[in-house]
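Issue: ligand-bound run for magnesium ion - logging full I/O for the record.

Environment: standard queue, default settings, no custom constraints.

Inputs:
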Amino acid sequence: METKQLQKIADTLRYEAVRMVWEGKDGHPGPALSIADIVTTLYFDEMNIDPDNPGWEDRDRFILSKGHACPIIYAALNEKGYFTEKIEHFNLRALHSDFQGHPVSQKTVGIDSTSGSLGNGIAIGAGMAIAGKFHKKDYRVFVVVGDGELQEGVVWEGINVASSHKLDNLIVFVDRNGWQSGGSVEDVIGGNNVAQRIGAFGWHTIEIDGNDIDQIKKALAEANSVKGKPIAIVADCIKGKGLDFMENDNAWHKGVPTDEQFRQAGIQLKGDAK
Ligand SMILES: [Mg+2]
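Outputs:
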C-alpha cells in the first residue's frame, strides 16, 4: 500500500485509540500512539492475515508484548474488519468487555496471544516461531516490545533461545520511545545501546525512525531477506506521537483526555472538530 494511505490509516487508528480511552475514561494513550505507524504497516501492508479467518493456521502471528498499548491494536482489528460489525463503542477496560486493558486472546477475535504482564512477548513469539519451523510453515511471528520492558529478565531468555534456534521467522520491534511508566528509561536503567546488546546475542539488528512508514517498510524488506538469525528492528518512536499536547509527555503513559483535548485530537488527527 502507498505510504500516504498508510499514514492516513495510522492517524485514523490514533484517533480511534484516543476515542476509546476518552469514552472509557481509562487507558494508555501515549504508548498506543507511539507504535501506531508500526502497527499500521504490519496490519495493512506486511502481514499475511485474513480477517475472515482469524485462526488460519498459516497466518502471520502478532504479539503486543507491551500489552497496555492495546487500544491501537483494537483500532487496527476494527478497521481491518475482524469483527462481525464495526465496533462503535469498545467499552475499553470495562468488566466483561471484549476489549480489556490488556489483550486477552480468549476475549478478542484476532488477538494471537494474551499479554500485558510485561516481558513475555519475545519468549512466546520464539515458541510460536519454533512451532512454525517444526511444522514446516512459512508464517512469521511479529512482536512489539517496549524499551522499559527490556528490564524484565525473561526478555533476554527469549532473545537467547531465539538465536540458538536460528529463528529467522521471528521479527521483533523494540519501541524505543525513551519512556516507561516510572519515568525516562535513561533515568531508570541507563544505557540506550539496545541494538548492540540484542546483536550480541546473535540477532540481526536494524535501527530506524519508528514513526516513518517508509523506514518501517524498508526495515521489513531487509528483515525478510535475513537467513538463520532472528531480527530486531529497534525503532525510535515518540510517545504520544500525533498529538501536540501528548508527544513526549510521560504523564500520558496512562491518562484520559478532557473533552477539549479530545476535540483537539479530532482536529489534529482527522482535520475536523468531531
Ligand atoms: Mg517506552
